[in-house]
Design goal:
The complex is a heterodimer of chains A (380) and B (184). Chain A has helices at 6-13, 24-34, 36-56, 68-108, 123-129, 134-147, 193-200, 271-281, 364-375; strands at 186-187, 222-223, 250-257, 261-268, 295-304, 307-316, 322-329, 345-351, 354-360. Chain A is α+β, with helices and mostly antiparallel strands. In chain A, the strands form three sheets. A five-stranded antiparallel sheet of chain A has the order 5-6-7-9-8, with helices on one face. A two-stranded antiparallel ribbon of chain A has the order 1-2. A two-stranded antiparallel sheet of chain A has the order 3-4. Chain B is globular and about 55 Å long. In chain B, 76% of the residues lie in helices and 0% in strands. In chain B, helix 1 (22-41) runs parallel beside helix 3, helix 2 (44-61) crosses helix 3 and helix 7 (144-151) packs across helix 8 (155-183). Chain B is built from eight helices and no strands. Chain B is mainly alpha-helical and 184 residues long. Chain B has helices at residues 22-41, 44-61, 66-88, 92-102, 107-125, 129-139, 144-151, 155-183. The chains are: A alpha+beta (380), B mainly alpha (184). At the A-B interface, helix 1, helix 3 and helix 4 of A face helix 1, helix 2, helix 3, helix 5 and helix 6 of B.
């Protein structure tokens, strides 16, 4: 046999030859016994190996492990927490998919042109606002599927509020991905509550919506912002973008990633009814980020690829003001979140699956009481 | 229960009744895991925390091949950690590690030790990701088969990779040591 290569010499020194394919170890050993050149190479390899071992030798680390029982307890509690928290992102994740699909499908069908309220007066959106140019704007919106990139959260309620600071959520590390296909914000607004319930309960996934069912007389289904456009500013005086009262149901803004599918940021303003509807579509587990008894104003989540990167829940406090709950999954730390506004108290609580941050203009005791209510929330 | 690199273990998904001998795995693997993680995050306390986290996850998931699974998860945790530190543009772990050394009782030897660890860290950083991973997995007690499984390399390529990594490590360390001496 030819001389033994360096890799095999290191394997010999590491006692790993037996892990080599059958017969090879025997041949290497036999060769080393009779070949002076390889014996010399073995000596050199031994020196290199010892040098590396010395370099990597460390002062004794204090690695006394905690009791295994303690870790088992943590595993059990995190398993419970996982059951309670994951469905939240997942169920709204599919809701985003469904609504996005409906919105894009609507555009592709050449139906009414989507117009996000915020983007009136800008690019394709302003074109869309003018009904005579609807077709052209629809084409722009579809073309934007190829070239644009933006994710903008939004929360629509009677006051048509801008999405509350999703920027407070951390930006997850940029994952490896294929070139992105990105979508301008797609806004879907519906007035048919029954249909929206269907959207939220997944039944609509297999039933095409009847024409007009998801439309408003003046806005229909809406999108969009041309590629690279600035984040839209509110246009409160434009009737076509006025989303108020019971008509404002669900709004989504999405980004589609070429490799990893949907990245969604969404907001739901329908409170617990919405959540219950969504719950029915999932496994019946309650959202553990909702304090019982407080009105839910919005739920915004962020994902990186398929991994959740944070959920933010806004609830109205009994005495006025808002409670903000941010759940950060593993891999993110509270220090990455923008600090609270002046006068807002923050409570940061480690969770088995990450961190929970509560913020409100309350004192710490009141925040802790809300945390207690959250922790004791019974299953719906 | 003896552990082999390819040991398949019957497991029960139900908590509290696992056929996996977690006591044995914990006893034999925890120190190796901390050692492995320490050379990734350079903070012994953080390495211990991440090792615990890896075990908590393993206990939850009950993987069929716990040891290999643990190292895979630990490597991912260390990567997340590194990304986070990088993103903050702070070297908190290193600084913390230095602070801990500073709190000891023999300042001269601690200084030497700290300088040495800086050289080790820099020498390791001079390796390719793959070479470094293979070297650290070996250093943490992984077998060739386990390393191969972890990295996707063939078993026969592990020795070659280790040979290259060890040589490069020794060279890098020597160069930095000489530069250090020249600066003094």
């Amino acid at each position: 046999m030819s001389h033994v290569d360096e890799g095999a010499l290191h394997a010999y020194l590491d006692g790993a030859l037996d892990e080599y394919p059958t017969g090879q170890a025997r041949r290497i050993r036999a060769h080393l016994e009779r070949c002076e050149r390889c014996a010399e190479a073995l000596g050199e390899a031994r020196q290199v190996r010892e040098q590396a071992e010395r370099i990597l030798a460390s002062p004794e680390l204090n690695v006394a492990p905690p009791p295994l029982e303690e870790l088992k307890r943590l595993a059990r509690s995190s398993e419970t927490a996982q059951r309670r928290t994951r469905p939240l992102a997942h169920r709204f994740g599919w809701a985003a998919s469904v609504v996005l699909a409906l919105g894009v499908g609507w555009m592709l069908r050449g139906g009414s042109v989507p117009v996000p309220p915020e983007s009136v007066g800008r690019g394709a959106a302003s074109m869309a606002a003018e009904s005579g140019q609807a077709e052209s704007a629809a084409q722009d919106a579809v073309a934007a599927l190829v070239g644009s990139r933006e994710t903008e959260a939004l929360a629509l309620d009677g006051a048509r509020t801008q999405a509350p600071a999703t920027s407070a959520l951390p930006v997850a590390p940029e994952p490896m991905r294929a070139p992105s296909v990105e979508v301008a914000p797609v806004l879907v607004v519906g007035e048919d509550e029954a249909l929206l319930d269907e959207v939220l309960s997944e039944r609509v996934a297999s039933v095409p919506p009847p024409a007009g069912a998801l439309s408003r007389p003046d806005t229909d289904v809406a999108a969009t912002e041309a590629a690279g456009a600035e984040p839209p500013a509110p246009a409160a005086d434009d009737r076509s973008t006025s989303l108020s009262g019971a008509d404002a149901r669900v709004a989504l803004s999405t980004r589609v990633d070429g490799a990893s599918g949907l990245m969604g940021t969404g907001a739901f303003d329908r409170g617990r009814e919405t959540m219950r509807a969504a719950d029915r579509a999932d496994d019946g587990e309650p959202g553990s980020l909702v304090v019982p008894g407080l009105e839910v104003l919005s739920i915004v989540w962020r994902e990186e690829g398929v991994a959740p990167a944070g959920v933010r829940v806004l609830q109205r406090l009994d005495g006025g003001g808002e409670l903000e709950l941010i759940h950060l999954p593993e891999g993110f730390e509270p220090g990455l979140v923008a600090p609270p506004a002046t006068g807002v108290t923050e409570l940061v609580v480690p969770r088995d699956q990450g961190w929970l941050i509560l913020r409100a203009a309350l004192d710490e005791a009141a925040l802790r009481e809300l945390l207690r209510r959250l922790d004791e929330a019974p299953p719906m | 229960m003896a552990l082999g690199p390819d040991s398949e273990r019957p497991v029960s998904p139900a908590w509290g009744f696992s056929l996996t001998d977690w006591n044995e795995i914990y006893r034999s693997t925890f120190p190796d895991l901390v050692r492995f993680l320490h050379r990734k995050v350079w903070d012994d306390e953080r390495a211990r925390d991440l090792a615990q986290e890896a075990f908590v996850r393993a206990l939850r998931h009950e993987p069929k091949r716990p040891r290999a699974w643990l190292f895979q998860v630990a490597a991912n945790l260390a990567k997340d950690e590194a990304r986070m530190v990088l993103r903050r543009k702070k070297h908190l772990a290193l600084l913390k590690s230095e602070r801990e050394l500073e709190s000891g009782s023999d300042p001269a030897s601690e200084l030497d030790e700290r300088a040495r660890w800086r050289l080790v860290k820099e020498a390791l950083e001079g390796l390719s990701d793959r070479d470094r991973d293979v070297l650290l997995l070996w250093d943490a007690g992984q077998s060739y088969t386990e390393i191969a499984e972890h990295t996707g390399l063939a078993v026969g390529a592990i020795g070659t990779t280790l040979s290259r990594a060890r040589k490069r490590l020794a060279e890098n360390y020597r160069e930095r040591e000489e530069a250090d001496v020249a600066r003094r």
